[in-house]
Amino acid sequence: MANVIAKGLREHSYAVDIATDGNAALYQVSINDYDLIILDILLPGRDGFEVCREIRGRGETTPVLMLTARAAVDDRVEGFEAGADDYLTKPFSFRELLARVKALLRRETRLRPDVLQIGDLIVDSASHRVSRANREVALTAKEYALLEYLAQHMGQLVSRADIATHVWDDSFDPFSNTIEVYMNRLRKKIDENHSNKLLHTRRGEGYILESRN
After folding, report:
1. Is the dihedral of CA 109, 113, 114, 115 positive or negative?
2. Exposed end of the chain (fewer CB within 10 Å): N or C?
3. Which sign does the torsion angle of CA 146, 152, 156, 160 carry?
4. Is pLDDT of 111 > 60?
5. pLDDT tens digits, residue range 167-213?
């Protein structure tokens, strides 16, 4: 199930790490900065309730969506008391899971606008649509995820390490040229045929999305 959920989320431009037991989950949370945690209750070793309590005990405020085959009211109450933000009972449709993920992320980033604009470039995070000079730009899921991350940090230098962590996942090879390949694709789609270039490289440091006119 974890692999199926991860595959579906990656197809919707999310970077996903998988932990196969409670201890692994706690370790992953301790070394990474996550926007959302999807937590199954019936984990090997330490169960989801215990993992959630420890996460909250550490002061972590990351939204937690709990998954379980238990539909009893007492189990749902225990999940909320452990610190979960939402609760989804198996079996469930991926569409419902995705809707709850989006709702929790919106709640967490409610101060961030849905529409980001840099010059004549518009990135709509609600619909995942991009346009420049009033013309729609067709992007793959990963190209969109990269552009959205840059847009969320417009005017700021974003390093390769930041991109690898937030746009890809723990299977990313830091020695590959994947990021450069995707940046070149974005430049062709975003900046080609435009005199005002928005995607800029600072050699050896990272990338900046900004209008310099």
Report:
1. negative
2. C
3. negative
4. no
5. 887 667 777 888 999 999 999 999 998 989 999 998 888 999 998 86
115-209: in CATH 3.30.70.100: no
Average pLDDT over the chain reads 87
Query: Looking at the domain that runs over 2-108, which CATH code has it been given?
Result: 3.40.50.2300
pTM to 2 decimal places? 0.61
Centre a 10 Å sphere on the Cβ of residue 178 and count the other Cβ atoms it contains: 17
